[in-house]
């Protein structure tokens, strides 16, 4: 079932969902299951699985030349989605990224997803790899997420890259990312919203936001979206902080603000055990307010760990 159908079916009740990462290469799928199992009590209608692009490493050869080696650290998104659907009977939402993939690679992934009965995809551009610093698209790939949304929409209309071999259409529900505090590469929020609308016009049916800790940023973002004619559901992304380091790491990595009240609470903590509890309490209060505003779904970034999310969900659902 499509994410948008789950939202319609809930008739205004806030749903619970979360996102997981594929385990590092060679890790056991059981680790993922043991984190998901306790969360199933809260009936997530869908679970997202992130996609990860390659990174490079250079190896020195015996002749002194450098060989560029491509490494994929977390492959397996498609397989994990299939396993989740079979084991838990929930809808898996694979993320799909432009970076590192040709148009053909992407289309093949989508065809596999279609065969596996996966109804949703979250379409993203992906980030730059560490060694490059700025995002460089694959030579035969897409530069922006809106182009990849157009590709999936075309497939939904039965149009493929090499049409002579095609028959039938896919029927994916497409989600995209939105940034209440703007995407870091964009000079201002209005321009970022202009591009967000481009993704919606290309066929995206819902938005999942970047994590944030100040609900007012989400409310303002939703208002701005509505003012420019974006009417699709906007799902807030929540990540409880769990260690003191998050105060600096999260703003650096995700380009978000930390409210001063939260910073002061964390700074009072004597150890990370206390920070963990502060993070849980902050998320509970954040989510309670979001639920009062009838958000369609609370989407948790679990990063593969579930204990704090379990505690939060117990208070809310
Ligand atoms: P885009 O929408 O393409 O935007 C990228 C930048 O370009 C923005 O600054 C935008 O304003 C600008 N822009 C957009 N379109 C155009 C255009 N047509 N012309 C000019 N400028 C334009 N990353 C992963 O690698 N794997 C994941 O699984 C993953 N999951 C994520 C899930 C969520 C909910 C979120 C919020 C992010 C996720 N990311 C993931 C990170 C994401 O890939 C990065 O934030 C990336 O830098 C931007 O992706 P995007 O899809 O928002 O890009």
Can I get a quick summary?
This protein has 317 residues and is of the alpha/beta class.
Give a structural overview:
It comes from Apibacter adventoris. The chain is an alpha/beta fold and 317 residues long. The chain has helices at 3-10, 29-36, 77-88, 103-115, 145-156, 189-201, 215-227, 246-254, 260-268, 272-292, 307-316; strands at 15-20, 46-49, 55-60, 66-71, 91-97, 120-124, 173-178, 206-211, 234-238, 297-301. An eight-stranded parallel barrel has the order 1-2-5-6-7-8-9-10, surrounded by five helices. It has a two-stranded antiparallel sheet with strand order 3-4. The protein binds flavin-adenine dinucleotide.
User: Could you estimate the helical fraction of the residues in percent?
Assistant: 40-55%
Strand order of the largest sheet: 1-2-5-6-7-8-9-10
Distance separating the two termini: 22 Å
Uncertain runs with pLDDT below 50, 5 residues or more?
none
| Main sheet summary | 8 strands, parallel, barrel
Shape: globular
- Number of helices, counting only DSSP H or I runs of 4 residues or more: 11
* Class by SSE composition: alpha/beta
InterPro entries: FAD-linked_oxidoreductase-like, Mehydrof_redctse-like, MTHF_reductase_bac
Pathway: One-carbon metabolism; tetrahydrofolate interconversion; Amino-acid biosynthesis; L-methionine biosynthesis via de novo pathway
GO molecular function, one term: methylenetetrahydrofolate reductase (NADH) activity
GO biological process, one term: methionine biosynthetic process
């Amino acid at each position: 079932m499509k994410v948008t159908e789950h939202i319609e079916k809930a008739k205004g009740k806030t749903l619970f969902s979360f996102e997981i990462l594929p385990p590092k290469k060679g890790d056991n799928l059981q680790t993922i299951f043991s984190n998901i199992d306790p969360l199933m009590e809260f009936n997530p209608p869908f679970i997202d699985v992130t996609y990860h692009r390659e990174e490079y490493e250079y190896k020195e050869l015996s002749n002194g030349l450098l060989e560029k080696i491509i490494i994929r650290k977390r492959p397996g998104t498609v397989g994990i989605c299939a396993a989740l659907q079979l084991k838990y009977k929930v809808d898996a939402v694979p993320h799909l990224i432009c970076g590192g993939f040709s148009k053909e690679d992407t289309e093949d992934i989508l065809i596999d997803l279609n065969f596996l009965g996966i109804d949703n995809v979250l379409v993203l551009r992906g980030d730059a790899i560490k060694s490059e610093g700025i995002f460089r698209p694959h030579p035969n790939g897409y530069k922006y997420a809106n182009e990849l949304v157009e590709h999936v929409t075309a497939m939904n209309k039965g149009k493929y890259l090499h049409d002579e071999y095609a028959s039938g259409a896919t029927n994916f529900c497409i989600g995209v990312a939105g940034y209440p505090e703007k995407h870091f590469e964009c000079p201002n929020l209005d321009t970022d919203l202009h591009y967000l609308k481009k993704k919606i016009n290309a066929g995206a049916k819902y938005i999942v936001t970047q994590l944030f800790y100040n609900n007012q940023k989400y409310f303002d973002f939703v208002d701005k979206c509505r003012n420019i004619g974006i009417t699709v559901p906007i799902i807030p992304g929540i990540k409880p902080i769990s260690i003191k380091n998050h105060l600096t790491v999260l703003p650096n990595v995700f380009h978000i603000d930390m409210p001063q009240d939260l910073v002061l609470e964390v700074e009072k903590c004597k150890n990370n055990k206390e920070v963990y509890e502060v993070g849980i309490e902050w998320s509970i209060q954040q989510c309670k307010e979001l639920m009062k505003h009838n958000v369609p779904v609370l989407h948790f970034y679990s990063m593969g760990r579930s204990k704090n999310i379990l505690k939060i969900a117990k208070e809310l659902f």
